[in-house]
Amino acid sequence: MPFPAFAAPDAPSRPLHVVSPEGLASFLSALPDPAAAWLQATGFEATAGDLRLIPAEDGSLRAAVAGAGTPKSRARGRFHLAKAAAALPPGEWHLEGEMSAQDKTEAALAFLLQSYRFDRYRPGKAPTEPARLKAPGGVDAARLVAMAEGEFLTRDLINTPALDMGPAELEAAFLTLAETFGATTRIVRGEELLAQNFPMIHAVGRASSRAPRLLELAWGSTGPHLTLVGKGVCFDTGGLNIKPSSGMLLMKKDMGGAATVMGLAHMIMRLGLPLRLRVLVPAVENVIAGNAQRPKDILTSRKGLTVEVNDTDAEGRLVLADALAYACETPTDAVISMATLTGAARVAVGPDLAPYYCDDDDMAQALETGAKQGFDPVWRLPFWTPYEHIIEPGIADLDNAPGWGFAGSVTAALFLRRFVEGPRYMHFDIYGHTPAELPARPKGGAGQGARAILGALPAILGLKL
User: Which GO terms describe its biological process (predicted)?
Assistant: First the structure.
């Protein structure tokens, strides 16, 4: 993956002036007359992300000016300065202008995230060198770099086609992550899943020629214990309830939950947070063969609950259920699951928000605070207990896909909650994809919720940083 970094603190750099519409007149008055006249002639109005390059008298590049926009325009999105960063010539830059600490942090993170490139499948494309920013005074540069590194890992994993990112390749990336930070791992593959009582992970993945597996990582020896569980469906045809071709076009991203918890794990380990971390990823491919699970099959889960399979395309909750039950067999302070689980969540909040479920108000409040700090928006949806009867089919303990037609994300979350006993629990139903180019977020794979969780961990776990 590309390496996000700030410019060296002692490197020569040009100023990037950040100017608001209300401060534009004052800024122009401080410029030499030719530069001010030139800037006015270009029609610069300091709109959010608008960029102008300012020449010196000899024609060389003297500086640049970027619009900060109005508070109202800034509220309509995130990372506006990334638009300017993308248009800057390569080289080193530093920020100038009146900015709050929050605005400086957002601008610095925007520069890092904007530098992402995914050129693996275009070997003939000349690499483009991004502009690099000196970390502004007062920002936690190491933390921002760790955030960007984790996000880049997530994007790379999601963007890679299923041909090159099946269960074995996801395992290889998982092992590389563990090796980088000295974590220990345990992998359970193929028929051994049955022998070690992961029956639903096996049932979903057994039809593929690429063996299903459970990936487990452990890191840290002291402090509170955190367990992350990520859905790793490397490709989802829907199984025997096969998707239409249009429904498969983005299914390489169905391991977005796994990619996001791996990115978050990278952030945690890179920053050396004082906690014990466990990461669980059920990695499977949901395809069709003679031994594929069938509609109306009844599976017995690791926890012992029976599940009627009413839709083989609702497979993510099956593999997560075994992993969540396993997670709770070891004492842990908090469990967080992440999955590209339902289209219903997209209907509810669209692609830009990360919806989450949590019964613990303190945990939810910590997440909301972390979301603001990390510029990583989230939205709380309800574990609505009165809907519990919807996921109870009568013939088995649970129904993986009740044909109710309402609240599909809620009922999926309620299904998962049945497999968690003991620790505080939070579940994310993310999209993992940016459908159109946005500042600092290119079209393609995207992490959601990881920076918000990172910011919430001190409050959730009582970390002493």
Answer: proteolysis
Distance CA 93, CA 63 (A): 9
* Cross-strand bridge partners of residue 219: 277
Percent of the chain with pLDDT over 90: 94
Which residue is associated with the tokens 């599940």? 307
Active site residue 317: yes
E strand or H helix that includes residue 155: helix 141-159
At residue 128, the pLDDT reads 79
Task: From 167, 430, 188, select the one nearest 302 (Cα to Cα).
Answer: 188
pLDDT tens for residues 148-188?
999 999 999 999 999 999 999 999 999 999 999 999 999 99
The CA distance from 63 to 239, in Å, is 57
Chain CA centroid to CA 240, Å: 29
CATH number at 14-133: 3.40.220.10
Q: Does the annotation count 243 as an active-site position?
A: yes
Catalytic residue among 317, 417, 418, 441: 317
pLDDT single digits (tens) 66-110: 999 999 998 998 999 999 999 999 999 999 998 999 999 999 999
Q: Which CATH fold would you assign to the domain 144-461?
A: Aminopeptidase (3.40.630)
Per-residue pLDDT tens over the stretch 248-286: 999 999 999 999 999 999 999 999 999 999 999 999 999
Give residue 124's pLDDT band: very low, low, confident or very high (50, 70, 90): confident
- Largest CA-CA distance found in the chain, in angstroms, rounded: 82
Q: Matching CATH topology for 14-133 and 144-461?
A: no
pLDDT value for 231:
98
Return the amino acid letter for 229.
Answer: V
* Angstrom distance (rounded) from CA 146 to CA 269: 9
The single-letter code of the amino acid at 227 is T
CA nearest neighbour of 423 among 301, 318, 221, 278: 278
**Among residues of the chain, what percentage have pLDDT more than 70?**
100
Eight-class DSSP state of 6: P
Catalytic residue among 62, 243, 270, 380: 243
pTM over 0.85: yes
Residue 449's CB is within 10 A of a number of other CB atoms, namely 30
CA distance 167 to 205: 10
Q: Where are the domains of the chain?
A: 14-133, 144-461
